[in-house]
User: Fold this.
Amino acid sequence: MKKITSLILALVLTFSLVALSACGSKTTDDKSTASAEDKVITVGASATPHAEILEQIKQALADEGYELKIVTYDDYVLPNQALADGTLDANYFQHKPYLDDFNAENNTHIVSVAAIHVEPMGIYAGKSGSLDNLPDGASVAVTASTGIAATHINGTTIHSWSGIGLATALTDNLVKTVRTRRKRKLQEADILIIDEVSMLHAWLFDMVDRICRIIRRDERPFGGLQVVLSGDFFQLPPVSVSGRNNDLIAPSAEYLASRERYMRAGLNPEGFVTESLVWRELNPVVCYLTEQHRQDDGQLLNVLTDIREGAVDDGDRNVLLTRLGAIPEPGQQAVNLFPVNRQADALNDLRLFEIKEEPHEYLAESEGAANLVERLKKNMLAPERLCLKTGAAVMAVRNDTDHQYVNGSLGTVRGFTTQSQGGWPIVEFENGNIVTMKPNSWQMQDGDTVLATVKQVPLRCAWAITIHKSQGMTLDRAVMDLRRTFAPGMGYVALSRVEGLDGLYLQGVNERMFLVSPDAVRLDGQLRLESAQAADTLASDGVGAFRARMPQPAAGEDDEFAQDVLF
Assistant:
């Protein structure tokens, strides 16, 4: 109980005076010398705000010689069960009346040891997004093109931040929705960061630009936001989705009009962001980064550099051949990467079969026309028939609205809820969050009309994943078969997932693994040239030369009481 007391004191001293609960079976008068295990306090908490609050007291406990381990949950039942069986030391999660009812219904003896309630509060000056930004007052929107990439920078997807979501055209209804839900966020931002921009289509980049101009009432690119882009165009390009269902649903007038604009301009809406309508107007300053931070192994780094430059030689091939047929040591975990889902699914089925336990089966439920439902099932990534067992490696295939996991998050099935609670899988993700996974909905819409719906638990087994899904990940070890690589950049992406040659295990190779996109090569040369020119300008004319090229708002543009706005 001494370590629980330390936790309570840290909470009270760190914050102002939900209940903190502990198992009643723990002794309070153990005078024996504390072991290393006794110096670890494991506390269950909701992701927001309680886990965030606990993060703030970690250092205070560390100063007292205690390590605080936080386990997040998304319901009330699981943390109490974990507390009762001794997995947790305390549960910072619920109100006292609920705790009393739980004890009565489950014959447990969990006791409330402190009443602690904290209202999260922030103090900001003007447009500042955090206390760290108070000196300059800038509000920075940190986004990325995918959920996995967003987690690496503690940001959100550009789809979510902009309010565009999965839309493929900017309709009047979408603009109204964004005004209702995202207006304040878009207007308060000063700087927009988009990471992994190589995976962003030109048409989506343009949609973000247009919605920012409309909501911010500023006709400069992105409504006057300073835009910072980062990415590697040698990776796999984005999967084309904008016209995926046009054979089943007539495209909207807005969609057709936007494609007409690209055709007139000689641009490819499915191409890189440099093919966007706004790119030339944006006129970004290019800074080409050359220092590599993922790979610390000289040999692998040399191979990747030669692939980028189209200069692969026998020396590079021989380096990779030293890893052909190598396998991880017993007990070492490694992710298997394959070019296509079919190969990944075959290995996943085999690994699942090896777990000696009856599987839990989840069948997708659907509504709508058969051809539309079939298309949804093909595109939704979650299998129509999902089989899971305790210990199964899994990957989330949708973003969580509560931000506990994202599309691509890896985890392990730790158990299942009771049948009376639905029998849903309980997954511990690599970020430490423990989540009860319930069905999500995939929908096909014509405007605001839902034409078909498929519901399924948003998981798939993940001992093996596709190379495309691995983009943005850094892996300690990866087993890969590159014999069936079919797209330029696929081999480069797979090989660059690991930090060093000793983490690479090759099951098969071919020459196609060295191919990169000709468009990426041409664009890379152009970006290098523009970066060199920018460096020369900076050296000769200073930073002021770049400020001069930034478009300025028209007179009165920022005045919300201007006559043309009021009347």
Q: What stands out?
A: The radius of gyration is 27 Å.
